[in-house]
Amino acid sequence: MFVFFLALLIIWPIAELFVMVQVADWIGFFWMLFLLFASAVAGILILRHRGRAHWRRFRGAIDERRPPAREAFDGVMITSGALLLIIPGFITSAIGLFLLFPPTRWLVRLVVLTLFASKFKVAATTATWSNRGYNYYRSSRTASYDFEGEAVDVTDRPDGEPQPQLRSGSDGSEDQVDRNP
Known about the structure:
Layout: H1 2-27, H2 29-63, H3 69-86, H4 90-100, H5 102-116, H6 131-140, H7 173-179
Helix pairs in contact: 1-2, 2-3, 3-4
């Protein structure tokens, strides 16, 4: 696997440079630079706009209490597509555009799920704390917390003297005298 990634890191830039030279021969050097710059700007704009939109869809799925798997997968593919648009190169931009369109995202999702379905474990759980669950919890407790008692006002001392008042704004010199006998 390491050899595959090492070969990819060597072959990918060479393939990108080859495609850039071919495009520059076909449309001109400055138009090629303009297309690379436009691709990067489009990737940044898509990342900002579509990222927020998919985050709202993700939060909406959670608020509706349904699994946000499709929204999460679409969000990852859109983010990956936008990042691939930002990276200079025509091959990466083509792959990035492929990941941005909904029909092709559906195809990628289908391929990924069929290839890696055996790797995923699906577990469905439900947890709720509705009024019914809370009332069941309250009724299952046997201890009662109601006690008979009497309230006593403690603002006056039993001997009739007033409570000592707290001083505010003192300079602290009296406190030093009290601490050091």
